[in-house]
Amino acid sequence: MTFAPQRRWRNLIDGEWRDGATGEHIVILNPASGEPIAEVARAMPQDVELAVAAARRAFERRAMLALTPAERGRLMFDIASKLRTMTEEIAELECLDNGKTLANGRNEVALTVRYLEYYGGMADKLEGRQIPLGDGLVDFTVHAPFGVSAQIVPWNGPLPVGARSVCCALVTGNTVVLKSPEDSPLSLIKFAEACVLAGVPAGAFNLICGYGHDTGAALAAHPGVDHIVFTGSVETGKRVLRAAAERVVPCVMELGGKSAAIVHADADLGLAASRAARGIFTHAGQICSAASRVLVHRSIYDAFVAAMVAEAQARRIGPGAEGAELGPLISGRQLDRVETLCSVGVAEGAVLACGGRRAARTAGYFMQPTVFRDVTPSMRIAQEEFFGPVVVALPFDTPQEAVDIANGTDYGLAAGVFTRDLSLALWTADRLVAGQVYVNDWWVGGVETPFGGAKRSGYGREKGQEALLGYVQTKNIGIRL
Ligand code: NAD
Questions:
Q1: Does the beta carbon of 258 lie inside 6 Å of ligand 1?
Q2: Is 183 near ligand 1, meaning CB less than 6 Å away?
Q3: CATH number for the domain whose boundaries are 260-446
Q4: What CATH number belongs to 8-255+458-480?
Q5: What is the pLDDT of residues 24-70, one digit of tens each?
Q6: Among 74, 298, 419, 464, which residue has the least CB neighbours within 10 Å?
Q7: Where in the chain is the domain with CATH 3.40.605.10?
Q8: In the annotation, is 92 catalytic?
Q9: Taking the C-alpha atoms of 381, 383, 384 and 387 in order, what is their torsion angle to the nearest 10 degrees?
């Protein structure tokens, strides 16, 4: 790969590319080398003011609502086609600022294009109800936008996670201020370029890159914001919710996970191990719905752990740009966090079947793929999110015990069941507290299937037709004739 990204990047406010109020920049590091690759204008709370004001003006002049729903849909298709032409550049940027593999980077663009086309296609199909009230009266509902939607995105999948919220907001007539993640903002800047090229009205979509503690917090608390979509950790989510509560602003919260794959005694062991391994080692485990726990029937526990270790050891560690399958963690800070939690696991008495520490490399933030065995449900490593390539394996004896362990964390994002018995699969799926349940695979579904959390994993849904309903409020109009 010979690609060298542009050195300086800016924020998009009111249709113009701008530096931040203080002229400072955030240095973007390549997590595979620790080297700086670019600088992004640092947005400050003053820039939040400008961006929210631009979004407010765009909403007041009905920048999106003045378009027919079909025109809004076509606009999403136009953004998609501009984005598609940038596939290789974005894929390489995702390797460089995010540590993704090239294949994963290309998939992120394809996925984003799908979101744009899916919600573009729905723009003219969000219909209200006509409610019969009797003679002389006509009553119907409309889906009204909230106004200015503030969106805050984490670093692990900024392009699809950010773009799906932006397009749901725009097709429903809202306007947007999105704060991109400070560690990996570049792909969303390309998305903003595609929006400008496609003709998204100035101010309807504003993109700012800044740190969370000042700029993110200022955005969440801004009095000009009518709606919040937050994707990130539970702790930050609670802060955002406190700010939102002050002004009773509705939120969609997409938070963390500690998702369990249950492997019943009759499961196809090879299939279950390969799918569970894909579920935890893809993007080095930095996926909210990663299969970070495997609960395995005691009769096949040893064989399953051995299969997971073989899966872990088959993955080549290295930069995604060089074709390796297991890329780096996003930062030195994240690598320290994951490694420290591994040592907690060892101190708690869990046994390392493989991995457990950073990979022996001279540069970059690489973690060994790690499998813990002999883990008990109350251990911290069975309760806390690593957000790294670390899976904990717990044995169980009965299906009820498996469900109890799976449901026994604060989280409820995703879950999986492996069995050849359809009745047992459905019995288990019915009892799992999770927004998505996969049977005999991990990540069944996609853009079309509603995704979101139960318990501390959040509320509201992204993806699927359900997502659009999170961007509108029902207004009832009653007419006496
Ligand atoms: P994080 O909570 O640290 O940061 C997320 C975003 O919030 C960043 O843009 C950050 O700048 C911003 N932020 C930080 N402090 C803020 C504040 N006080 N006010 C407003 N914004 C603030 O999370 P992270 O470490 O970047 O991402 C990892 C977490 O995200 C994991 O817990 C993961 O499970 C979760 N996640 C969830 C989903 C989902 O769809 N459920 C998807 C991806 C990631």
A1: no
A2: no
A3: 3.40.309.10
A4: 3.40.605.10
A5: 999 999 999 999 999 999 999 999 999 999 999 999 999 999 999 99
A6: 298
A7: 8-255+458-480
A8: no
A9: 80
